[in-house]
Structures are given as structure tokens and as C-alpha cells.
Amino acid sequence: xxxxxxxxxxxxxxxxxxQGRTVRAVDGVGFEIPRGSTFSLxxxxxxxxxxxxxxxAGLDRPSAGSLRFQPDARGRLPRVQMVFQDPYxxxxxxxxxxxxxxxxxxxxxxxxxxxxxxxxxxLLERVGLSAADGHKYPHEFSGGQRQRVSIARxxxxxxxxxxxxxxxxxxxxxxxxxxxxxxxxxxxxxxxTSLFISHNLAVVRFVSTQVGVMYLGRLVEVAPTETLFAAPxxxxxxxxxxxxxxxxxxxxxxxxxxxxxxSPLAPPPGCSFHTRCPLAAEVCRTEVPQLRTLPDGAAxxxxxxxxxxxxxxxxxxxx
Length: 319
What we know:
Elements: E1 5-18, E2 21-34, E3 38-42, H1 49-56, E4 64-69, E5 80-83, H2 97-107, H3 116-126, H4 143-156, E6 161-165, H5 173-190, E7 193-197, H6 201-207, E8 210-215, E9 218-224, H7 225-230, H8 235-242, H9 282-286, E10 292-293, E11 299-300
Parallel strand pairs: 3-7, 3-8, 5-6, 6-7
Antiparallel strand pairs: 1-2, 1-4, 8-9, 9-11, 10-11
Helix pairs in contact: 2-3, 2-4, 3-4, 4-5
């Protein structure tokens, strides 16, 4: 895996107007994704993950900041495709799935017209379906099969960069593992770089090279996957990891954030997490913490985390 970034994001913001006020859905986010790696974004619903994914996929425009894809050795910019969350909504119910998969091939002129049908059959078989399935409609498939179709359609565009927006959250647990294994295999075979969006930390640990934790539109921690799970620095990250159920531990103390997630219409001043943080000090209520790189390469936006990179610890409330 190359360490050169295929995507560099700096100061990215996306603001919306709602009820006469500005919603900062994404508010000054920056990160890099090395070529051949998977960068995952996690956080509670409403933190800005999907908005950021749509910007990266080119489906929405940022209000500020920059997003740059780097060309490969041939000087070609990466092709970007997206796998959506809901396979029930992302396929045209009036089209046979062969047509849905063929459309990006024909539109981008990736194959001569007389080779498109064979390419569709090849893609269906690569995702674990049969060539004959191309004649069926979406309603004739299960949820997991529809998501396989969605992945085949994304691959039809011959992407270098794949954006996956919660691709397994609408599926049964038994099917999720199959789709995740399929994505990992295809990413390895195709040499893809990925941005993966999820709220499921177990899924994130399985698929990711690096993880970014978002809270109310901002990144509060970025670290290599094993570093983040072994030694989370930010109090919010610790609370998320502390809430993961563990087999065999029975009833145990669980980390539960105090209060509700603040409204994006009226975010708290200073650190947006201070209203729920057990370590909040006066500086947290007035000054926005900046994402600082620590000696081990992780980055944290927290006034309570010192440059020595020692994990913050606090007593969890009983579940």
C-alpha cells in the first residue's frame, strides 16, 4: 500500500439554511487517505458523515475548503463511485438490473456496445450472482442480493476510489458479514481506495486502515484503526467504544454520554462535546479545540489531551 494520499481534504465545510439559521453539517474537516487504504468515518446520526461522503462522491458541493484527488502514475485522476446505504431505494424498480449495471458502462463509454452485455455478466458473477440475474427486476432479490447488485453497478464505472455510505446498515446481521467480506475482497483485487461511512464500530474495525471520529460536523479524533481501538484519546471516542457490548461480561459498567446530542441548529460554544463530557473545563466552554497531531501519529481535538499522548480516563456510569 502506497503512503501517498489519493485524497486530501482541507477545511471542508457544508452549511445549510434551516429555520432562518445556519446548520454547519460539516465544519472545517481535514484528512488524507493514502492510496490503497480504507478510511472510515464514525459518529452518531446527524454528525455529518453522509454529507461529507456525498461531497467526496461529487453529489454535493462544499460551502468552503478544498478536496483534491491526486492523479495516479499515468496522470489520470481517480474515478469515484458510491455504494449507497439502502439497496431498496438506490435501484430503479422499473429497470432490469442488467440495464442498471450497463448504464454507467455505456454513459462513460468504457466498453464497445457489443461488449457491454458480457461485461454485465462478468460483474454479476464477481459479486456472487449469476449472469441470468441480469434479466430480473430489483423486487425479485433479497436485501443482500440487491446490495450485491449495487456493488456491481459501482464496479461497472471502473472506480479507483469507492465511497461506501453505511452499505450494510439496512441488512440482516447474517448478511452483513457476507457483504463486508465481498467489499474487502473486491477492494484488494481491484486495488481500490475507500471512504467508508458507518456508525457500527465492529464493522469499522473490520474494514478500516484508519478511523476518523466525527461529532457535530467536526473531526475529534483520527488514528490508525488498532491504535484507536487500543488507546482512544478523545472522551467521546472512549464513550463510543465503552458502549460496545462484549460477550461473556454480563451486566457491566457502560460509558453513556450525559444528555442528548445538541441540535445542529444551535451547537454549544467552544468544544461542541463539552455539554456531555465528564472532563469539561472552563476552556472547553469558550475555545474550540484544534485537531493536533500526537507523537504516535494520531490526531485529537481535545483540551484535556496533552502532547504526551496519554489516553484520557474517567469513571463510566453504570448501565
